[in-house]
Amino acid sequence: MSDPASLAPIIAVVGPSGVGKDSVMQALADRDPGFRIQRRVITRPADAGGEEFTGVTPEVFARMQAAGDFALSWQAHGLSYGIPSELYNLRRGARAVLVNLSRAVLGETQERFGDLIVLSLTAAPEVLAGRLAARGREDAAERARRLDRATTPLPEGLRRVIEVDNSGPLATTVDTVLARLQPESV
Ligand SMILES: Nc1ncnc2c1ncn2[C@@H]1O[C@H](COP(=O)(O)OP(=O)(O)O)[C@@H](O)[C@H]1O
Ligand SMILES: O=P(O)(O)OC[C@H]1O[C@H](OP(=O)(O)OP(=O)(O)O)[C@H](O)[C@@H]1O
Question: Parallel, antiparallel, or unpaired: how do β-strands 79-84 and 70-76 relate?
């Protein structure tokens, strides 16, 4: 764990829909409470399941954005996503702050928070399709749209990228992530 006064790095967890971003974040935090998870604000019904998030209407989201409540925001899958400014406070005294981001905002995030580590998760296409179906949060048409953008590349210019295959058991992925973070003293 880092010095309580210091600011922990942000680990942006990215990858295609169904790859296991939320599951890996939760498993890391379960293994070591020094990993804190940044909850997101999303214009999705609050009872949709999956990750813990704050569900708001598009009107409330727009008001929050206008009020400067978000450190980062973007749109995807017909939804708006916001990262609350509390992200700044979560960094204090943590080992790292985990946040599920769009690959599209990584450049901007790195500019804003110099100390950014990108954890890029991968899995084979058939694994993604099986996991999305098993999760059951989206209908078949929406799952197909999500699978279509599975191969979106990472932007150029990212300084610290750790790519980990999450096709196997979650515990194996967590072991690999922790081992890959070690040399970077996170
Ligand atoms: N390593 C894994 N092994 C088996 N199932 C997994 C693994 N990682 C995630 N899952 C399952 O796959 C589904 C999608 O995972 P989720 O964390 O929601 O992915 P994402 O946030 O990337 O869309 C969930 O039902 C989850 O329980
Ligand atoms: O630009 P991309 O990198 O493709 O990402 C687009 C969006 O997909 C994910 O959302 P969400 O977590 O709601 O969906 P998922 O759980 O199905 O990945 C991710 O967090 C982004 O908000």
Answer: antiparallel
The architecture of the domain spanning 10-39+94-181 is 3-Layer(aba) Sandwich (3.40)
> Within 6 Å (CB) of ligand 2, which residues are found?
14, 17-18, 21, 76-77, 81, 100, 102-104, 146, 149, 152
Report d(CA 147, CA 80) in Å as an integer. 19
Q: pLDDT for 13-40, tens place per residue?
A: 999 999 999 999 999 999 999 999 999 9
DSSP 77-99: TTEEEEEETTHHHHTBT-SEEEE
The pair of structure tokens assigned to 80 is 């708006």
ipTM summary value: 0.98
Tens-digit pLDDT profile for residues 114-142: 889 999 999 999 999 999 999 999 999 99
The pTM for the full model equals 0.95
Q: What CA–CA distance (Å, rounded) separates 141 from 158?
A: 32
The two three-digit tokens of residue 175, written as one number: 């072991």
